Amino acid sequence: MNAPELFARSWALDDIQILRTADGHGDGRTVEAYAAVFDTPAEIQDQHGHYNEVIARTAFNRTLSHGIGKVRVFYNHALTMHGTPAEGAGSVPIGSPVDIRADDKGLRTVTRFNRSELADAVLEAIRNGDIQGYSFRGRILRSNPAKTPRSRGGALPTVTRTELGLFEYGPTPMPAYAGA
After folding, report:
1. Is the CB of residue 122 less than 8 Å from the CB of residue 171?
2. Phi, psi of 102 (to 5 degrees)
3. Within 10 A of 156 (CB to CB), how many other CB atoms are there?
């Protein structure tokens, strides 16, 4: 059996919140956002071909049943804008997951941001609306169909991701998907 392949997808945010306490105070370092959206087709062009992809509501259930202690939070997957590994502060996690759960919309994350220069810059960019995307990476464990069918003109084939891993997520300036 082949090893599961790495999977990364980004989403444009339509509801990201920097949470505050009930009285409206607080330090504004906790962010709630969706790292994935369920049951929403997205047109993908990658090493597998050109197709519509859907993430099933249950895709993260098994992964989340093992806890969130090993999941990390990075800005732009700890990559530069050119896709090369970030050095220095860019390769350090910007926060820690407080809660990750699947709800009716998608994979909802609550993250406590660190006190660092990069985390502060990312929080300010979220507040200003300059960062409008979230992304996640993990392994593709199961899909339906198992292999992406080739598009032969006309309608694109659809692949549903039925089981995914999750080893990191976070804000990104260039989302590939809409809806999260």
Report:
1. yes
2. -85, 130
3. 17
